[in-house]
Specification:
Chain C: This is Monovalent cation/H+ antiporter subunit D family protein. The complex is a heteropentamer of chains A (about 230), B (about 90), C (about 500), D (about 100) and E (about 475). With about 230 residues, chain A is an all-alpha fold. Chain A folds into 2 domains: about 35 residues; about 180 residues, no CATH class. Chain A is about 75% helix and about 0% strand. Classes of the chains: A mainly alpha (about 230), B mainly alpha (about 90), C mainly alpha (about 500), D mainly alpha (about 100), E mainly alpha (about 475).
Chain lengths: ~230, ~90, ~500, ~100, ~475
Amino acid sequence: MRRAASLIIGAIITALALWLLWVLQTALDMGAGPRLAEQAFAGLPTTGVSNPVTAVLLSYRGYDTLLELGVLLAALLGIWSLGVASPGFQPAGVVLSGMVRLVVPLLVLTGGYLLWVGGYAPGGAFQAGALLGAAGVVMRLAGDETAGLPGIRAQRWLIVAGVAVFVLVGLATLALGQGFLSYPQAWSKWLILAIETAATVAIGTTLAAAYVGGRPWSHAVVGGRD
Amino acid sequence: MEQLLYGGAGVILFALGLWAFLVYEPLLRKLIALNIMGSGVFHLLIAIAERGELPPDPVPHALVLTGIVVAVSATALALAMGRRLEDDSGGR
Amino acid sequence: MSLETLLPAAIVVSSLLPGVFIFLVKEESHILRGVLNMAGALIKLVLVGVMIWGVYQGETYETRLTLAPGLDLVLSADALSVLFVTLSTVLWLVTTVYAIGYLEHSPNRSRFFGFFSLCVSATVGIALAGNLLSFVIFYEMLTLATYPLVAHRGTPDATRGAKIYLAYTMSGGVLLLVGAIWLQAITGPVDFTQGGYLEALSGDLQGPLVAIFVLLLAGLGIKAAIVPLHGWLPQSMVAPAPVSALLHAVAVVKAGAFGIVRVVYDVYGIGLADRLGLLTLLGVLASTTIIYGSVRALYQDGLKKRLAYSTVSQVSYIALGASILGPIATIGGMVHLVHQGIMKITLFFCAGNYAETLGVHKVSEMDGVGRRMPLTTLAFTVGALGMIGIPPIAGFVSKWYLGLGAVEADAHWVLLILAASSLLNAGYFLPILYRAWFRPEPDAWPKERPSKGRFETMGALLWPPVVTAGLCLIAGLLAAAPFSPLEWAALIARREYL
Amino acid sequence: MSAGLLLIFDLVLVVTLIGLAIAALVSPDVRRAVMLFIAFGLWLALVWARLRAPDVALAEAAIGAGLGGALMLAAARRAARQEAVDGQTDARGEEG
Amino acid sequence: MDASLALAVSVPLIGGLLATALPKRAQGLGLLASVATVLVVGWVMAGVWQQGSLHAELGGWAAPLGIALAADGLSAALLGMAALVALGVGIYASGYFRSADADRHFWPLWLLLWAALNGLLLAADLFNIYVTLELLGLTAAALGALTGTVDAVRANLRYLLVGLLGSMTYLLGVALVYTSYGTLDLGLLSNALEPGPVAATALVLMTAGLALKAALFPLHFWLPPAHANAPAPVSAALSALVVKAAFYLILRLWLDVFAPVVTPSAAGLMGMLGALAVIWGSWRALRAERLKLLAAYSTVAQIGYLCLFLPLLQALPPGAERDDLFVALVLMALTHGLAKAGLFLAAGLVQRSAGHDRIDDLGGTAQHMPATTFTIALAGTALIGLPPSGSFVGKWILMTSALESGQWWWILVIAIGTLLAAAYVFRVLSRAFNLEPTPRSFVTQARTEVPALLLALTSVAVLGLAADPLWRLLGAGGGA
């Protein structure tokens, strides 16, 4: 019965896939459709960065990125609302903790590097933030219950930092009469860097906290479960 | 040709993920399926950004970057909910 | 903003607003509630008085609120609506007094009087509705407002009765809605017009027009309790007496009958309705209902049940009047709208008094009530004789005009129906009167009379039936006086047959 | 590099990618499935690098495969442990 | 450049951030942000009222490179409804949660949800819509699970997964569009679009994804458990707003952007699904054992009603009649939204007071709380479509137009749906009348009862009797 169902589903989906492939081919056969790349490259000099992907993320479509940071924040808030974190693993052995002492600074350093080069080379806030988060994961694997994160209060400020700086910059430009997130050209580079820095910290903290998987204990003692 | 090859791979990944999502019951399986589905869509976007001689289109790249972060956020939330369920049923 | 545009709305609001406030009144502050009730009723009476005078002088009153392009909520006053508004307003005042007395110590009075007021607002809205859309709106509001009244007691019986009531009226509402929308899709938004407004396009639309009439008639017939759509009426007898009185004499049943009159005269126009063969349909249904209701009434032992079947029968006189082509029959039907109202409300008030004072619910328990409660029984007698059609009580006038109209229109079978129905009326009312006046009192009743006054029951319960019985007599005796129901019905007929 | 050779290279990349996806989706052992999913993510990053999307490739490797994989792995490990515990209790239940 | 549009998203967002960072003051900050958001939304609506539509380019980059926000009559009307419901839900929530902890978790997620909702209604870019959809879906699922019971978490986990499936499907459609047309901006796209397999497939994919989120029959299976098990204020928002938001996008795509691609048979299919949803949803609501489950199934039915408009809109040529029908659709959506919010809030109070919400055992609990019972009655009136509610007017216009365009069969569906709705509403109300003692006053707990009552009252009295301004708001905005 189950097998039959899964076969039927399989057949339908195969048909769907073939249809989609045909449509894709039709779309591609219509020739090289228009694309936004040329406009994106043309606008690049005024954005203050030279990596086109960063330009799209932070300048052309900065609003998307702002909301995306909101998604990340929402996920963590959801995770926190579900309960307290479980205690981590048993303390790591000497060898592992030695490795951690080596790997974590390396990850943080690489993260910083990626953040900095993001303006003109592959890299940027997300990749950098991911490395920070990875550092947290490694620390928790090595037995640090908090994944190297600070206390709950600081954590709360850190996770909102990315969205907060982003939206405040947006409102500031709005107040200057420029329109939401329209950076003045002279400041553009630095504003983007500031936003990226805040975003990196927020992403790193959020990802590590998500890995911890529940709200930190200190809060739990005050509130209790629901 | 290249676009069709890679784009087609994206479509196939999407279909595979969809199939697995509908067929498998456990949460983790469904999440893997969803992520592969998403990867298929992302892959399609990356494939159409690549146009031979021209430099690749950065806009789909940025969209995919956004998509990846969204996907991982959703995965994390879903896993946390799954763990909550496990804890509750385990505690009983 | 002038009197002409505000008056119809003010008449509706004068009971709506007190109704809303009454919900908010704390249960135990009965004085505040009473003041709100009476103030609303009296203000409405004054406003209606102004309107009667104005309409008589040929003034037009109209409130128009645009709900959406092409959808206007219209409240306007013509002679027909004034007839129904006046009836509702006067009887509401009387019933309010009665209900305050009747429910003195029962629970949930704020809820009761709140919905009671909403119910009257809806009825007045139906009376004043100036087009089908407005009519449907108030018609549905009436359903909503009466449901809690029927269910008020909260016993399983009450809940069941209310459920049946709702099932019928909701279905009726949907049929009416579909019919009204269909009609509007054909004609566009048109207000009720004296003499009807479909005459012009009847040519190639015969089929749809007949179908629409059947839909509308079914929707209205459910509330008017036309056989075979009458099933809810006896079931809803579980409601408290003032509610039964209001449902039967004024609000629900009357709203259905009034709607039929509206559709026949002011939508289709009686001429067109006749040519489409719709009057015959209506006449047959009405006659069947008259006979069937009376026959069923014969076999009821429950006093209220007997009265309920009597209502089924009597209300169809109105439809019967509308189904005969000719101004005299029209007068008969219209005037019965009022006469049946005041007579039936008298009977229900009395039935409530018997139940409340002596615990008498059945006809078989009524031996000797006349000696114990002479005033009440006197009022009951007037109402019952009126129903049978004994002169000089109001009911006689209705039947007389219906009969004359039938002769005028060469519809002699109607005379047969009238005669048969009168006999049956006598058959189920006279035994009650005989028991009440000529049989001895049983011992089971409380020996002690109410200590408060010298009357047989408390004043708030006694005076309403006495007043309405008086009205029955006056309406019959002074039928030829200006502003009597008969004269007013003649005014309507003159305007309809222009 | 000739066009034909490049096409073969592309084909290998794509076929491997789809193969890894299928393996990850149908692998009977959950932990293995997650491992395969991580491998799939890394391979995907490689393909994207081939498609001249280094930023995205980096992000996919770090976030999609890396952190997403780490999260899933933790869940898979817990699931496996749970199964083991359940299996033991079941076995005991049968014995008793 | 209009500042109000960006503020409509930023203000609740900032509120959410502050509520996250300062959990102890979450409630106060949340209420403050709610009021501020309502004011901003009022500003947006005033702008649309005066100018017909608003448009703002973000980041100083014009579309197609940048992202624009846009508001027309449709989005302004829904924004207004969302603001009203959200304000009501906020005030209610401030008196609803018993533990401070739940309250603290509620506010940040709730304000983020509101920001996502406003963002979605103002979005003019296909990918931006995807991001707002995800933000909406994540916050909605997290809020729905706040009850913390196994049922709630399980149902909302499913909701989350189904939502993700929907957004992935939607995104595939977006990718196809970008392949062919190289733009994501709705306005530019609607100019460039040509009927053909690519556009049609993209529309099918996006619609399928959105239909999953809008719980359009037969993709509604996830909704009843998710909405029925969420905390009452969350259920209200989910049913009234989140589902409607996905439906709004379907409307946007079908009537606006992809209008040239839509064929009569496609629209007819949507109408069919709508009809099935009306009947199935109402039937299940009638059979539901629990009050909140009843409300959730009635949401399924209501999305169906809205779909019934599509084949008729498709059949009508542009003109006053079509505009009327379109406004009727919006009116119906607004009425249902407000009424459903009121109903869920009231159901939450009943559940709290009785300790359960099994309909058959509700006797008396409803009578303890006259205001709450009244709320259920008012909301029920709007759900059935009785006068004087806004849905009555909407239904009247819908039925008229069904008759005029010869598609009379929809009338049967509406009639059956109406009767079924009456049956399930009065099934609840009939429990209110029994022999319990009399309550002393109408309102017992103002902070939670009054918002619910006002929401339901608005759906009946205001939208039914004073909906005329809506015509101007949408007419001037060009509507579809």
